[in-house]
């Protein structure tokens, strides 16, 4: 093992090694060394690729590199090796220092041409392979040093990627390291007050059918409101545009690669560059994606539109993400590795939108279960926007079914609710179903696997909400108002027809609505029965949080606090002296926006 300075330094290194091993697990074999000239990156016939030994590189040495700037075909660029930053990527699990190579890249997009500003090294370039004059792989473009259009990139040595080694996500640079980079890159030396860090070149984050901000907002809210729920979101520089067109885009060295947690109506993927293809193995990025190999991730080809120069961060604009080409098996500090062929299993999210006589269906396929809850909220929100073409106002009644497997049996959680808003309908419609999913996944009682999610939404234009304003009884074919607090004669065993009157809430469309119901006077009523109708009561406690078993959790979720019901309560004393009281939620045609609590009595003969 390489000696690290003094005894005290060795002790510090050993402590670092122990911490890394505890977090990441011990490696089963020592990683390949970056300066071993005999190493091969790939020995598959027809794909042979040698690893260029770091010890053989010299300052000013010409290099070539591949990356895709438009479409799917890689472009060859030039550059030069300008040195390395010793121990720039920290120590591996054995205490060996890992160096970061420095390469000055060149090309029309990097340097600017024909009136186009220089982009420098762009987001989405991570993984671009760098070769020596003999075609041996030096490594992958993966790190940057400036948010400006800088043409100097940090390159992860090929041997580290081949070994899927142990690299730190980010390491602050000392002043001496900053000065060395500045000298190698021909830039002014920094002062003692300067700060810098080795930063991953971010992949490009493309979101289809929604926005990255929407997915992140739902995920963040769920993590705060559902105990134990920890969502997963795609990484990278979020950009607009891009489509999930399902085309068969190739996975080739220097080409685009998209790693996704889902595709279809709602898709979320991080796009970078392929470093090498060896048989069915695909290496990319040169840095981690999520640094969690247990996540279920698919890989796709993708098509680039152009490289966009930007003062904040230049980036690759992606025009489309293609069909699934395989799945990810390793997401490590030195890069990602996927396998071509079958994709990871997915869970379907199917949403049906009904507006008048028109019906449309959207389907997403989600591979990572911790993305399901944010994805369904985003998909239902997208249904609002495309169906009503209104980002603010509207009304929607949503019915959803969540199929889940527990202890080898498949069960279904079914709920319904109505949502109406004058300013944020798209943010409301998917919240309850997403929370149901998160509660199932985060429950502390049993392992649950979501099998499928289906939701049907009936839309109406405008804000439609009513307030409880009156109660009427049907007598002799005519509806008559019931005075609050009044007493009416009644007969045991007889059925009476009532309806709750809902007056349109301020600013609401749709006019007066009614909620009909019938009441049969029990034969066991001693003297009077009190009937009460009211808006849905606010819940001050949370039955989900109070659940002490999985069955209690399901019961609490099934008792979904709906906003589109009128509560009817019947209370009376039985002839045996026992008091009876029962509240029934009555579905209303619109969302209930408050109103009056109305009570009266039905009195029977002694």
Automatic annotation (TrEMBL):
Q: Which PROSITE patterns match?
A: SPOIVB, TAT
UniProt keywords, alphabetically: Signal
Q: Write the signal peptide boundaries.
A: 1-34
Q: Which residues form the Peptidase S55 domain?
A: 1-177
Record-linked InterPro entries: Peptidase_S55, TAT_signal
Identification of the protein by name: Peptidase S55 domain-containing protein
Q: Which organism is it from?
A: Candidatus Microbacterium phytovorans
């Amino acid at each position: 093992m390489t000696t690290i300075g003094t005894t005290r330094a060795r002790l510090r290194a050993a402590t670092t090694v122990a911490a890394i091993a505890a977090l990441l697990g011990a490696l089963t074999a020592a990683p390949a060394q970056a300066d071993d000239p005999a190493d091969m990156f790939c020995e598959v016939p027809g794909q042979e690729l040698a690893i260029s030994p770091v010890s053989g590189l010299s300052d000013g040495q010409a290099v070539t590199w591949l990356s895709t700037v438009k479409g799917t075909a890689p472009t060859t660029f030039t550059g030069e090796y300008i040195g390395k930053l010793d121990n720039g990527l920290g120590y591996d699990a054995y205490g060996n220092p890992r160096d970061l190579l420095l390469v000055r890249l060149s090309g029309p997009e990097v340097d600017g041409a024909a009136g186009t500003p220089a982009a420098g090294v762009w987001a989405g370039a991570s993984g671009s392979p760098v070769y020596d004059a003999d075609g041996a792989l030096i490594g992958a473009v993966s790190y940057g040093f400036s948010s400006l259009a800088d043409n100097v990139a940090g390159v992860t040595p090929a041997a580290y990627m081949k070994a899927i080694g142990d690299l730190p996500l980010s390491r602050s640079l000392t002043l001496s390291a900053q000065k060395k980079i500045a000298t190698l890159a021909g830039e002014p030396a920094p002062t003692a007050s300067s700060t810098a860090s080795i930063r991953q070149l971010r992949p490009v984050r493309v979101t289809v059918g929604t926005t990255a901000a929407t997915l992140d907002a739902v995920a963040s809210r769920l993590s705060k409101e559902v105990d134990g729920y920890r969502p997963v979101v795609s990484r990278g520089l979020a950009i607009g545009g891009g489509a999930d067109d399902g085309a068969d885009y190739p996975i080739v060295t220097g080409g685009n690669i998209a790693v996704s947690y889902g595709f279809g109506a709602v898709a979320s993927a991080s796009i970078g560059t392929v470093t090498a293809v060896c048989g069915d193995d695909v290496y990319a990025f040169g840095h981690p994606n999520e640094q969690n190999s247990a996540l279920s991730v698919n890989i796709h080809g993708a098509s680039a539109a152009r490289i966009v120069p930007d003062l904040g961060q230049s980036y690759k604009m992606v025009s489309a993400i293609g069909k699934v080409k395989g799945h990810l098996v390793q997401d490590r500090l030195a890069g990602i590795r996927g396998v071509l062929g079958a994709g990871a299993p997915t869970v379907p999210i199917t949403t049906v939108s009904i507006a008048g006589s028109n019906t449309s269906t959207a389907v997403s396929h989600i591979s990572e279960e911790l993305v399901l809850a944010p994805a369904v909220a985003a998909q239902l929100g997208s249904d609002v926007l495309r169906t009503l073409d209104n980002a603010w106002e509207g009304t929607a009644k949503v019915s959803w079914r969540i199929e889940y497997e527990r202890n080898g049996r498949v069960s279904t959680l079914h709920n319904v609710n109505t949502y109406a808003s004058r300013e944020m309908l798209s943010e409301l419609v998917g919240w309850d179903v997403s929370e149901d999913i998160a509660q199932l996944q985060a429950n502390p009682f049993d392992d649950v696997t979501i099998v499928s999610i289906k939701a049907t939404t009936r839309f109406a234009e405008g804000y439609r909400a009513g307030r409880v304003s009156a109660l009427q009884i049907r007598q002799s074919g005519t509806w008559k108002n019931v005075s609050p607090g009044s007493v009416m004669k009644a007969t045991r065993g007889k059925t009476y027809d009532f309806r709750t009157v809902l007056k349109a809430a301020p600013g609401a469309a749709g006019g007066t609505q009614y909620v009909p119901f019938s009441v049969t006077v029990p034969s066991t009523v001693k003297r009077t029965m009190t009937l009460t109708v009211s808006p849905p009561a606010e819940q001050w406690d949370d039955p989900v949080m109070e659940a002490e078993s999985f069955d209690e959790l399901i019961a609490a979720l099934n008792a979904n606090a709906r906003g589109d019901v009128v509560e009817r309560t019947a209370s009376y004393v039985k002839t045996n002296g026992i008091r009876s009281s029962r509240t029934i939620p009555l579905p209303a045609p619109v969302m209930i926006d408050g109103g009056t609590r109305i009570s009266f009595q039905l009195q029977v003969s002694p």
